[in-house]
Amino acid sequence: MDRFVGAGVVWLTAFNSIGVIVAVVWLATLGRWATLGLGLVAAVVGAFAIGLALLPGLALATAAARSLERHHNSRAFLCTALSLLSTYVVIAAWSLASIGYFAGPAHAIGEALPLFLFGYVVATAPLSFLAIQEDERRGTGSRITLISSQIATAVGIAVVLIARDVKLGLAVFGLLMGTGYLGQLLFAQQRVIEATR
To answer: Between residues 134 and 2, which one has the greater pLDDT?
Structure first.
């Protein structure tokens, strides 16, 4: 599992790096300097804001670990489920707010593409930073959340651009985030089972 997640992170990092360059050059060509400046501020401030918003989930994760040490597996699973739910809600809200703010004013496809791409960059950059910070301490969990949010955001944007249907894009985003949540919850439950053997 760790190798699969690691490979996903490598591919998404490459995509994100190219996305940053393309979005910045494209928006600079369009003269959208205020958008670029605001996006930079939002990405930096967003990392701190998201970090604060994730604190309740971190408290629940700590409670899950303590419950597991005391062999209260049901309580550990419940705390883990609530912790992950809190994390996914915060990340989904940040992603949707970023995309909505930066891509909302777009009227023509030539303007929508770079704005959606830039919104994606602003949405995922703080999450990548936080995942790297957490990865140094804990491991695979944050990378799974990061991959889920990046895929859900990218596919949701693609659906909106191709189908020109925001509601469908939101539904796809929600479905993919929900799938990521359930997958990560199953992964966490497997870790609990392994820890109790």
So the answer is: 134
| Structural domain boundaries in the chain | 2-195
The residue-averaged pLDDT of 48-62 equals: 91
pLDDT at 17: 73
Of 29, 44, 21, residue with least CA distance to 117: 21
Residues 6+ apart with CB under 8 A from 157: 99, 103, 116, 117, 119, 120, 169
> Do residues 129 and 172 lie in contact, with contact meaning Cβ atoms separated by under 8 Å?
no
Average pLDDT over residues 50-63: 90
DSSP string across 90-156: HHHHHHHHHHHHHHTT--SHHHHHHHHHHHHHHHHHHHHHHHHHHHTTS-HHHHHHHHHHHHHHHHH
Rounded Cα–Cα distance for residues 161 and 2 (Å): 33
- Angle between helix axes 2-29 and 140-163 (nearest 10 degrees) is 50
Please report, as a single letter, which amino acid is at residue 62. T
Phi, psi (degrees; rounded to nearest 5) at 105: -75, -5
**Contact indicator for 94, 123 with CB cutoff of 8 Å:** yes
Contact 61, 83 (CB under 8 A): yes
The stretch 116-139 carries a mean pLDDT of 77
Query: Does pTM surpass 0.85?
Result: no
Give the pLDDT mean for 92-115: 82
